[in-house]
């Protein structure tokens, strides 16, 4: 039986694919062999990122599963206790919201036909409920240019920041960066992630929560 939730998300994204579109994936930036000073600066940037517990961003996201795809708005709010991520159609504002409580390890997905759904694996919950494979468990790190110990960094830029990496089966490319400003370290502007036929492109339009 076809899931009503999959039909809802497909209509939301595919029916409005021409809205809030993202530019095509840029050519990979040239990789460098950063020196010790650059790597130390990158370690300090990561420390600053981790020290900011409450933050958020607003941006545009494009998803594809090899057959279907579309675009929408993504609003993300994160605090020390968890996060809320809302994907919405740019015109109707219909969509769904994923929330994660770090203490309990439970995720909740709202906005689906049939009511909310819960589970301990946020990525599996989204995929089973909507048919879309999204790296929601690690997206909060990637969007800040942070990789955990299991990630394999394949290339860095001259400042020591990651350009390409592999984590949890995803090939991640950090295409553009917002340079550091007073009260805010350098943060990615664009991320492209691929895992088989699943593709996610994210363009951050605005950062929130960083000291100005």
From TrEMBL:
Domain of life: Bacteria
Annotated keywords: Cell outer membrane, Chaperone, Lipoprotein, Membrane, Palmitate, Protein transport, Signal, Transport
Signal peptide: 1-23
Main location: membrane
Coiled coil (residue ranges): none
GO cellular component terms, A-Z: cell outer membrane
Gene3D superfamilies: Lipoprotein localisation LolA/LolB/LppX
Bilayer topology annotation: Lipid-anchor
Localization: Cell outer membrane
Gene Ontology biological process terms, A to Z: lipoprotein localization to outer membrane; protein transport
Entries under Pfam families matching the protein: LolB
Database matches in PROSITE patterns: PROKAR_LIPOPROTEIN (PS51257)
Keyword hit for Lipid biosynthesis: no
Similarity comment: family membership: Belongs to the LolB family.
Xref: HAMAP family: LolB
Subunit-structure text: Monomer.
Protein's job: Plays a critical role in the incorporation of lipoproteins in the outer membrane after they are released by the LolA protein.
Protein name, entry field: Outer-membrane lipoprotein LolB
Organism: Stenotrophomonas ginsengisoli
């Amino acid at each position: 039986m076809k899931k009503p939730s999959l039909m809802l998300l497909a209509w939301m994204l595919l029916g409005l694919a021409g809205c809030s579109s993202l530019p095509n994936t840029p050519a990979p930036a040239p990789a460098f062999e950063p020196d010790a000073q650059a790597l130390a600066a990158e370690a300090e940037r990561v420390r600053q990122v981790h020290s900011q517990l409450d933050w958020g961003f607003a941006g545009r996201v494009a998803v594809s599963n090899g057959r279907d795809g579309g675009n929408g708005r993504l609003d993300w709010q994160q605090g020390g206790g968890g996060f809320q991520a809302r994907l919405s159609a740019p015109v109707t504002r219909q969509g769904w919201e994923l929330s994660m409580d770090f203490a309990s390890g439970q995720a909740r997905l709202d906005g689906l036909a049939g009511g909310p759904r819960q589970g301990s694996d946020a990525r599996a919950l989204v995929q089973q409920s909507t048919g879309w494979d999204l790296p929601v468990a690690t997206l909060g790190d990637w969007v800040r240019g942070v990789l955990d110990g299991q990630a394999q960094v394949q290339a860095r830029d001259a400042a020591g920041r990651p350009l390409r990496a592999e984590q949890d089966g995803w090939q991640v490319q950090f295409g553009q960066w917002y340079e550091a400003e007073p009260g805010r370290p350098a943060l990615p502007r664009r991320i492209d992630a691929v895992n088989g036929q699943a593709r996610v492109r994210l363009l951050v339009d605005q950062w929130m929560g960083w000291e100005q």
